[in-house]
Amino acid sequence: MSAIFRRLTLIGLGLIGSSIAHAARRGGLADEIVGYARSPETRETAAKLGFLDRVADSPAEAVDGADCVILCIPVGAIGTVTEQIAGSLASGAILSDVGSVKSSVIEQALPHMPDHAILIPAHPIAGTEESGPESGFAELFDGRWCILTPLADNDPAAVARLRAFWEGLGSHVDTMDAAHHDRVLAVTSHVPHLIAYSIVGTASDLETVAESEVVKYSASGFRDFTRIAASDPTMWRDVFLHNREATLEVLGRVTEDLFALQRAIRWGDGDMLFERFTETRAIRRGIVEAGQDTARPDFGRGKSTES
Ligand code: NAP
Question: Which class is 180-289 in CATH?
Answer without folding.
Answer: mainly alpha
